[in-house]
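Progress against Task 2.4 (sequence-to-structure conversion) is shown through the following example record, which the project officer requested during the mid-term review.
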Amino acid sequence: MKTKHLNSGDLARAVEVNKETLRFYERKGLLRKPERTKAGYRLFDSTDVERLTFIKNAKSLGFSLMEIRELLAISDGNITSRDKVKSIAKSKLDFIDAQIKSLNNWKRTLSKLLYDCEKNDGNGLCPIIEDLSKGKSNV
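Structure tokens generated for the chain above:
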């Protein structure tokens, strides 16, 4: 049952976001333009709570607003392909794997630089500064 009794503050608190986030998602077309009271207050319902929760959870998994828009279109029935959802999720997973690989490379490089700095006899610049300045670091 839809209830039209949530104002923007109620909705924001229910999903633990701020009111500016609601306005931003409205402007981006991720949230519908809400009905308004005679006094101009925006009115939301339980479907808005679900939609905003979906957006927040998708963002926490690293989905971009464009990807979220696609997922919402599928959810709204504008696209009925399970394969499309899988494709979006697979692309995100591939992206995350690439980020992990890159972060691991950065970690190895920085660990080596720290090791080199610790074993340095104290003469001259720290090897971290020298390597970064000379482009020797593979970063």
